[in-house]
Each structure stands twice: as C-alpha cells, then as structure tokens.
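Render DUF779 domain-containing protein in 3D.
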Amino acid sequence: MMEPARVAVTPEAAQLLRRLRADHGPLMFHQSGGCCDGSAPMCYPAGEFRTGGSDVHLGDLEVDGEAVPVWMSAAQHEYWKHTHLTIDVVRGRGSGFSLEAPEGVRFLIRSRLLTDDELEAFGLA
C-alpha cells in the first residue's frame, strides 16, 4: 500500500510549475501564516527562501519526476496539521514575491481534513 501524502498538486498547477521550472530552475513552496501575501502558498526558486527550525517540511510535489518541496511555518502547521493540502492555481493577481505573479494567476491551497487512516499514518490519531 502506498504511504499517504500531506500535499498534492492539481494538473493545472503542475502545468504552471513546468513552465516556471523551465524559466527559473528547481522550485519550492513555502506556506506561512497571517494575512495578505503570507496566507498564500509562495513559489520560489529552490533555496531562495531559507527554511529552518521554525518550518515543517510537509512533503514534495512530484512534477515529471522532479520534487518540488512544500514547507509551512511551524506555527501555521499547528493549525493545519489535521489537513491534506492541494496546491491549485486560479486566475487573479498573484503575490508580489511568488514566481507566478507576472502570469496573471495565483497559487492557492485547497484543503480537506485527513481521513482516520491518514491521521494514524501521520501519528495524529
């Protein structure tokens, strides 16, 4: 049986990640808390946003066999630790710091509660 994942990506968001990777090289996401730009998943060139002890690695999105790590601030993770997150893309103004901003679209998080099996697998049951 396949191990459950904490994060996923929609086909539309994966398509945008392919284009961004072609322009910027390997990518990463960071989801912080708070308002405004901080409440959206931010896409950066890999390593441009420095992560540390105050961040949680949720997992990697697999896009054509290449990993796109997804990080979240530990404080935000406390609120969202019982959810599965899917990165999607919609039309609209993106964050000024996220790579998709000039594309006329923005990444967003779609979430659902983890199932009982997922909660157990992640040690949250």
